[in-house]
Design brief:
Number of strands: 0
Helix content: 55-70%
Strand content: under 5%
Shape: extended
Radius of gyration: 24 Å
Length: 152
């Protein structure tokens, strides 16, 4: 008979989830429809997820870019139906900067089969590649030694 589970102890196999390392948006935002629709949904998601209101975001973007960005512009960029109003790259970057929604950058990278990870992980990633090279060199060395010993 199984022992009752202690409610004060986490189950390391079911309760714990590894932290999300890659910066990304949820799949429902980034799939389906054409690219323009996906971008509009990504902008909409960033505006909704931000702690700032659309008015605050438009003001901060205006200050950041040195040009007038209205709340109505943001509304148009976030609308899939407003095909004539698409966000420019500099405004997309300003939105990301002001809103803090870095998943937008992950959305762009995913278009090329890439991911975005925080800079603090760069050394760890490089160490992984170094270890892969070390294993490949060790295997090559072993094979050469075995061939040399067999040829004596």
């Amino acid at each position: 008979m199984p022992r009752p589970r202690d409610p004060n102890t986490i189950d390391m196999f079911t309760d714990w989830q590894p932290p999300q390392v890659a910066v990304t948006l949820p799949p429902e935002v980034t799939t389906g429809g054409n690219l323009a629709s996906q971008i509009a949904r990504a902008v909409s998601r960033a505006l909704k997820a931000s702690e700032l209101s659309r008015d605050q975001i438009s003001e901060a973007m205006s200050e950041y870019l040195g040009e007038d960005i209205s709340k109505n512009m943001l509304d148009a960029y976030a609308s899939e139906a407003r095909e004539s109003h698409r966000i420019t790259l500099e405004r997309f970057l300003a939105l990301m900067h002001v809103s803090g929604q870095h998943g937008l950058l992950g959305f762009v990278a995913e278009q090329f089969g890439l991911i975005v990870v925080p800079e603090r992980y760069s050394d760890l990633i490089e160490l992984h590649y170094i270890e892969e090279q070390e294993r490949a060199l060790a295997a090559r060395k072993s094979a050469k030694l075995a061939r040399w010993k067999a040829g004596r």
